[in-house]
Write a structure and sequence with these properties.
- The protein is α/β, with parallel strands linked by helices and about 525 residues long.
- Strands 3, 4, 5, 6, 7, 8, 9 and 10 form an 8-stranded mixed β-sheet that branches.
- A hairpin with a 5-residue loop joins strand 1 and strand 2.
- About 35% of the residues are buried.
Length: about 525
């Protein structure tokens, strides 16, 4: 007999004077009662076990309701079936759609200040679901979820939901654990709450719209000075996406710097932003780093003199930590050619960071080369357009025709555009590896904010040897040959032929990287 059949046959709910329906248990048969008509003794034993389970669940739910009434509720957790280490496909598939864990917390809806129990249902192989339960409905909804959980609608067809294995209620004073629910001897245990946890627990309901933990204060003066936010910290019209980019960028780069500085915490920090534009990200990163580290110097480089003057004035007017933020006129390529290896990160005792976001086409390559020349510890770029490779890929696809292994993909213009971007950034990542960096390529912000949302982060790896560089050159050759790429700006700067061999004659470009052998 299934649990839900028992529930239908023997539901019993008592009510207190409170407006919350209280579960006190379900009808239980007396020990030694005669078997129900049509059921064997084993069936009766099974029913007795289920009755015991129902009783304990009722008591546990009552504890939840009492904790809410007494304002001592801290958290609620339900545990589903544990995932085994088995790689058997049938066993893994069998879990799909079943509950892995349920997390419960109290929230307060701003509109009517109503307090609700919010349950986040986490499934195996399916999307998490969030449900808000009104307090008067807890007595019905929570027992049903524990005793007879439904499979996620995102699971596979005809999936059989696995049962809840246990539950835990934390209050300010005690912890109640519902254990071994699927055994013949289910238990409800109580223990004192850990004094440290109790001291830090917050029994007050959270707001429905939880405040995000952001790296930048929304009311920061520099955000208002740049025209991103109003005085109350809310974004100005049309600036919401740019503000989100600033927050995410600082979260990523700041996180990378924090990891590095755990090792060399005493190091000053030197940052250069190549092609800084209006300096939103330059200001944002400088502000964050200056709040966390004692010595930070930043420089922004841009080709537009009027813009450089404008943002320099803003930095000067802010003063304080922005006194060490400077802006300079110039192109990235000219900056590299004129200053060479001495530029732009001249402080070799500092943690040197080079960033370049949305530098058009080969300007990204110029910025990467600038970082390599300067021996930057961290290089972070977000490429923009990829014009140099696209014509080469088009010509290669037309020449190879059906002989190319990706002919059915490359015959479509939209895919050639995407392949050009992918191949270009993949080559850049490999070239950075050849120059002695550990590289990550990832999406740094959602596509709704900008379509140019790929970020390349390269961290100087002092452990890499010549053998690794030789291996990378072979991979560069294979990737370039597959896409018909024979010319790429960063490879030219590094004096690397895309056939995988070092050029016998050096390029005319100055300050090139020594040949990789």
């Amino acid at each position: 007999m299934l649990v839900h059949e028992i529930l239908l046959l023997h539901p019993s709910t008592a009510f207190t004077n409170s407006n919350i329906p209280r579960v006190t248990g379900y009808h239980r048969r007396k020990s030694g009662a005669l078997p129900l008509h049509g059921h064997s003794t084993s069936d009766q034993q099974q029913i007795t076990t289920i009755d015991r389970k129902i009783q304990l669940v009722g008591e546990f739910v009552s504890k939840v309701q009492t904790a809410i009434e007494d304002q001592t509720f801290a958290s609620l957790t339900l545990r589903g079936t544990k995932k085994t280490k088995s790689k058997n496909l049938e066993e893994v598939t069998a879990l799909r759609g079943s509950i892995r864990q349920v997390q419960g917390r109290l929230i307060q809806v701003k509109k009517n200040e109503q307090i609700l129990l919010q349950l986040t249902l986490k499934y195996y192989g399916a999307t998490d679901i969030c449900k808000n339960i009104a307090l008067p409905d807890i007595g019905n909804s929570l027992p049903q979820l524990i005793l007879d959980p439904m499979a996620s609608e995102w699971g596979v067809d005809a999936v059989q939901a696995k049962p809840i294995q246990g539950a835990e209620l934390k209050t300010l004073d005690n912890v109640f654990e519902l254990q071994q629910l699927q055994s013949n001897k289910p238990k409800l245990k109580k223990r004192k709450a850990n004094s440290t946890n109790a001291a830090h627990a917050d029994a007050s309901p959270a707001t429905h719209d939880r405040e995000k933990n952001l790296p930048l204060c929304r009311k920061a003066d520099f955000l208002q000075a740049l025209g991103l936010t109003k005085s109350d910290g809310k974004p100005k019209p049309g600036m919401k996406s740019k503000l989100s980019q600033c927050q995410k960028f600082v979260e990523i780069v700041g996180g990378l710097v924090n990891k590095i500085q755990q090792v060399d915490n005493a190091k000053p920090i030197s940052v250069v932003d190549m092609g800084c534009g209006r300096g939103y990200l330059t200001f944002a990163l400088h502000s964050y780093l200056a709040e966390h580290y004692p010595s930070v110097e930043s420089k922004g480089v841009d080709v537009r003199p009027k813009l450089v003057k404008e943002i320099s004035t803003i930095a000067e007017s802010l003063g304080g930590k922005f006194d060490t933020l400077l802006f300079e006129e110039g192109t990235i390529e000219t900056f590299v050619e004129e200053n060479g290896e001495a530029s732009p990160l001249t402080n070799h005792e500092a943690l040197r960071i080079l960033i370049a976001l949305h530098a058009c086409d080969t300007a990204t390559d110029d910025a990467l080369w600038s970082g390599i020349c300067s021996g930057a510890d961290l290089v972070v770029v977000a490429p923009c357009c990829h014009k140099q490779v696209r014509p080469q890929l088009d010509a290669h696809a037309a020449t190879e025709g059906q002989m190319h292994p990706l002919s059915d993909v490359l015959k479509h213009g939209v895919y050639r555009e995407r392949m050009s971007e992918t191949a270009t950034d993949s080559l850049r990542a490999l070239l950075l590896e050849a120059a002695g960096y550990r590289v990550q390529v990832f999406e740094f912000i959602g596509g709704e904010h900008t379509s140019k949302n790929v970020m390349i982060a390269a961290l100087k790896d002092k452990t890499r040897g010549e053998k690794n560089s030789t291996d990378v050159l072979g991979r560069i050759k294979s990737l370039a040959n597959l896409h018909g790429i024979h010319k790429q700006k960063l490879a030219e700067w590094m004096n690397i032929d895309l056939g995988g061999q070092v050029k016998t004659k050096p390029s005319r470009m100055v300050n090139q990287m020594p040949p990789l052998r």
